[in-house]
């Protein structure tokens, strides 16, 4: 019986402040943790026995997924106490898998059809994907289906194929993992074991048709849109007369979309939320459980975590907003530079012409605040009325 190992132990420091209160794999995409989408893809590929390697925030992962029965799978857990690399993470599962198995990094989007096809190939096999920025990943060279080289984050990549973090292994991989040395980064790297397979001419490549890396906060928006595009409309709450909908709409139970609201593009609304009246929601927007999006509020292509309130005369564009935030009336988040240039955050390019802000949990805004493009606001920050926010604010920053 085919099994799957999913690595879900990391904190996701590049996702700060969103991961201050939750592990990276629990960040919501289309109103479900990204790890849930991956587990469902594994299940839909016909694999129901899953081992999760957990660490940072393990309690939240265990409480959400339990034994996996809710999703139609069987989940066992193993803990990686210290994040010492991918080889170390996989080593923790020794003795828990007895047959050939898929191994997947927990922070990506991949399709069930690809996983099914990969599982049918001879092991060992690596999932690869074409990228327009291969220098940010492990670059793979191939001859036919055989992998001939793997180079980590090369400034001059030899191909546009990258290591997608999806593998098919036989249990004999564990013997190789025992020989992996500590790297210069202080980690046990899976690539060292892969290099052995490459030298032996045994590692083959399978090109994934759907794969998305979710490594940075702005990647959440693209992944969210992709997942929402594949969903079917469903109304479990109340959509009042006078609501206009163009696109797919999902409304959770006990949620109300009030009259005068205009929804343009795909939108998903969680449970117990209140939308409107006269709100303007533009795709692809995911609004979490028990959120309030109020009168004359415009939300565009954003992810709003549960319990956040954006109640009157606000604009949020291309942003990721944490839980338990409250926006004072008239507070707005900009999402476009005057020169239409690519937006950078902490010196790193987002690759996006439109991006608003990354806002942590429990951030409170006074009235008429302005948040500039590419801003990062740490959790529990207090932003006084009429403030201009730019750049990066640490957790618990107070602006009076």
Please tell me about this protein's structure.
The protein is α/β, with parallel strands linked by helices and 400 residues long. The chain folds into 2 domains: 3-215, Spore Coat Polysaccharide Biosynthesis Protein SpsA, Chain A; 227-399, UDP N-Acetylglucosamine Acyltransferase, domain 1 (3 Solenoid). α1 (34-44) crosses α4 (112-119). The model has no long low-confidence stretch (mean pLDDT 94). GO terms for molecular function: glucosamine-1-phosphate N-acetyltransferase activity; UDP-N-acetylglucosamine diphosphorylase activity. It comes from Methanofollis fontis. In the C-terminal section; belongs to the transferase hexapeptide repeat family. In the N-terminal section; belongs to the N-acetylglucosamine-1-phosphate uridyltransferase family.
Secondary structure layout plus pairing:
Blueprint (H helix, E strand, L loop, with lengths): L2 E6 L19 E2 L2 E2 H11 L4 E6 L3 H8 L8 E6 L6 H6 L9 E5 L2 E3 L1 H8 L5 E6 L7 E6 L2 E7 L8 E9 L3 H5 L12 H10 L4 E4 L3 E3 L5 H11 L4 E2 L2 E2 L4 E3 L2 E3 L4 E2 L4 E3 L2 E3 L4 E2 L4 E3 L2 E3 L4 E4 L2 E3 L2 E2 L4 E4 L2 E3 L2 E2 L10 E2 L10 E2 L2 E2 L7 E3 L4 E2 L4 E2 L3 E3 L4 E2 L4 E2 L2 E2 L4 E2 L1
Parallel strand pairs: 1-4, 1-6, 4-5, 8-12, 14-17, 15-18, 16-19, 17-20, 18-21, 19-22, 20-23, 21-24, 22-25, 23-26, 24-27, 25-28, 26-29, 28-30, 29-33, 30-35, 33-36, 34-37, 35-38, 36-39, 37-40
Antiparallel strand pairs: 2-3, 6-11, 7-13, 8-11, 9-10, 9-11, 31-32
